[in-house]
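Researcher: Please predict.
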Amino acid sequence: MKTVRCLVLAAAVISLSACTTTSDSSRQQTLSITARSGVKTLVAKNWHIDDDCGQIDYPAMTVAEQPKHGRLEIVREAVYPKLVGKQSKCATTKVNGVVAYYTPTPGYTGRDRLVIRSPYEDGKIEEGVLTVTVVK
């Protein structure tokens, strides 16, 4: 039985740029997004499902670097997995997952940064680096 474990960084408001770098034990995604001051914004979601879209477990997601001008909250909730290929059939099935929300400090505008980590495959780590432009 094949399993799918995935960390998706959300281009929550406006996606400005993205890239992925990899090594034998890790990979890194970078993304620039825009968020509104004081508004809760989805920045990442993660799930661990089998070929039949059934939940295997709640995947781990940790904060590697807290934002300096807001707060990052990680919660368990139902998500629609964003998948391609064979597992794309699961994209219309809500599954239990883990979601990260960033809320900029009310009144703050400018840049912020946060880093989220999540395991994938056997012992490998995916790191999501988000640069946030906070606007009114």
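Model: The longest strand covers residues 124-135.
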